[in-house]
Amino acid sequence: MSSRVAGALLGAVLTLGVGAGEVRGQEEEEAPPTTQDGVYTAEQAERGRQIYMRVCSQCHALDWYTGEIVRAWNGAPLYGLFEVISTSMPQDNPGSLRRRQYVDMIAYILELNGMPAGESELSTGTSRLRQILFQWSDRP
């Protein structure tokens, strides 16, 4: 990963972390959905895996999508991750995938990091992606 992309990722995490605190400040009885709530389907993650194999694996080893670089998004809205990936990847042609493909890739990243699948696909809608918070878990 280039230092430019790594810097963009870190900057987005730090910037979006402030917004995550604002979302958490909503009424207590209405906790925002998190990545631990089954916000994508297994089928969607499989489509994301296929995108990874076809597009992303040329530059990123699979373990790049797990661990500390992903853990850094803890507490941030999924939209931030979507925005960074969709505007900077693939490195040789940023923004060239369809919106659905970027969201499917995020579903695959969630699966790789042990986030549970659910019954409904992860939405491509900006407002929905802004509502869902990335919640890291150390569970295997």
Structural overview:
With 140 residues, the protein is mostly helical. It has one domain. The chain is 51% helix and 0% strand. The chain is globular and about 45 Å long.
Which helices and strands occur, and which strands form pairs?
Elements: H1 3-24, H2 42-56, H3 68-71, H4 78-88, H5 99-112, H6 126-131
Helix pairs in contact: 1-4, 2-5, 4-5
H and E order:
HHHHHH
Radius of gyration: 14 Å
- Which stretches of 5+ consecutive residues score pLDDT under 50? 13-23
Shape: globular
Strand content: under 5%
Straight-line distance between termini = 26 Å
Largest sheet report: none
Mean pLDDT: 85
Q: SS-based structural class?
A: mainly alpha
Structurally, the number of domains stands at: 1
What portion of residues is helical?
Answer: 40-55%
In total, how many beta strands?
Answer: 0
- Please count the helical segments: 6
Could you write a compact summary of the structure shown?
By secondary structure, this protein is mostly helical.
